[in-house]
Specification:
The protein is α/β, with parallel strands linked by helices and about 400 residues long. It folds into 2 domains: about 20-285, Rossmann fold, CATH 3.40.50; about 305-405, Anticodon-binding domain of a subclass of class I aminoacyl-tRNA synthetases (Four Helix Bundle (Hemerythrin (Met), subunit A)). Helix content is about 45%, strand content about 15%. It is elongated and about 75 Å long.
């Protein structure tokens, strides 16, 4: 599976600052100091509908992580998956009378278009669940052979008791985990499981559903969590720098994935930091496909809104906060983009050096985009009121906003 084309990232004078970011597992900030190559895995879409603003906010956050690292002169090894076979996708295909593979391909293509328009940096490896099955099967077999998995009526489950570190990612107690498991794709009430929280690794073939050869596992398809583990271990290995996604993935997805990997390898941790973006709401509720309260990126683009304004709307809220998408949020972003473009249209202006460092400092401090936007606002206001005499300063500002915030002025 291929990703989307990369936009150029301008090189800035000097060197960026190392990133300090909130880690869900520790509940506080951690200072990340990757080696020459920073490694990040971000969980991708289940392609049964178009990209909504909640998706965009999540991928915007981890695009910023990459940009901060690139500004420190590191390389970035970024991996993202596509869950191109799963219950929600199959259910939507049946509901709408579509072939599930065509639905997945169509929505993945639209996601690529949206990411390109928003100038999100693409992953080096963009991997689908289906193409990962040959690598998933041996991992499930290994877990079974190690006593970390068991069979139940043809399905194979992971035993959460096999990982002594289970629970450390989300920090939730058993009751909270059980409630969320039931809400987010688990089956805690299934009879015969050793622990209600045990997640499925391999689902035996069901009539009318797609299935693949699972060698000693029999025909079936992979569970949700083992998919990301197989892809991450194959392309990044254990102990990569950041595991990312929306806050609704902390449990069960990231919790279970970490336990799968740790039980497989005997190593800890799966990732050095677990970073989660907040939820975007509409009309008082979390924006989600199940609720149908969605604002689609593609629809906003078709309405003639500049994708740069969409990114500024996303930047106007801290990535970890839960917030509401409104017409006013977008209108403010459109107005801000116009002011910034007017400010950089002149040949000279106020000194830009301090502004570049202010943006760097804000982003290095847990991706504080609201502070970064306010810094550019102040520069633009100075440009409007008195101008300045530093030749080329607007060009420096334009390149910095492009390189660090992904917004083309």
């Amino acid at each position: 599976m291929h990703a989307w084309p990369a936009s150029d990232v301008p090189a800035l004078p000097g060197k960026g600052r190392d990133l300090k970011i909130h880690d869900t597992a520790t509940g506080g900030p951690v200072s990340l100091d990757p080696g020459p190559v920073a490694r990040i895995y971000v969980c991708g879409i289940t392609p049964y509908d178009a990209t909504h603003m909640g998706h965009a906010a999540t991928y915007n956050a981890f695009d910023l992580v990459q940009r901060v690292w690139l500004d420190t002169k590191r390389q970035v090894h970024y991996v993202q998956n596509v869950t191109d076979v799963d219950d929600p996708l199959l259910e939507r295909a049946i509901r709408d009378g579509h072939d599930w593979t065509e639905l997945a391909e169509r929505e993945t293509a639209l996601f690529r278009e949206d990411m390109t328009a928003l100038r999100m940096l693409p992953p080096q490896h963009y991997i689908g669940a289906v193409e990962s099955i040959p690598g998933i099967v041996p991992l499930v077999e290994r877990l079974r052979d190690k006593g970390a998995a068991y069979e139940l009526e043809g399905d194979v489950y992971f035993s959460v008791e096999a990982d002594p570190h289970f629970g450390e990612v989300s920090g939730l107690d058993a009751d909270a985990m059980r409630l969320l498991s039931a809400e987010r794709g688990g089956d805690p009430d299934r009879p015969g499981k050793k622990n209600p929280l045990d997640p499925m690794l391999w689902m035996a073939a069901r009539e009318g559903e797609p299935s693949w050869d699972g060698a000693s596992l029999g025909r079936g398809r992979p569970g949700w969590h083992i998919e990301c583990v197989a892809i991450a271990l194959d392309h990044l290995g254990m102990g990569f720098d950041v595991q990312g996604g929306g806050s609704d993935l902390a449990f069960p997805h990231h919790e279970m994935g970490a336990s799968h990997a740790q039980a497989l390898t005997g190593e800890h941790p799966f990732a050095k930091a677990y970073v989660h973006a907040g939820m975007v709401g509409l009309d008082g509720e979390k924006m989600s496909k199940s609720r149908g309260n969605l604002v689609f990126v593609s629809k906003v683009r078709r309405d003639g809104v500049d994708p740069a304004a969409i990114r500024l709307a996303l930047h106007s809220h801290h990535y970890r906060s839960d917030w509401e998408w409104t017409d006013q949020v977008l209108a403010d972003a459109v107005e801000r983009l116009a002011r910034w473009r007017a400010a950089v249209s002149r040949p000279d202006g106020p000194s830009a050096d301090a502004l570049v460092e202010e943006i760097r400092e804000a982003l290095a401090n847990d991706l504080d985009t609201p502070s970064a936007l306010r810094a550019v606002d102040r520069w633009a206001a100075l440009q409007q009121s008195d101008g300045g005499t530093q030749e080329g300063a607007p060009g420096v500002v334009s390149r910095a906003v492009d390189a660090l915030l992904g917004v083309a002025l």
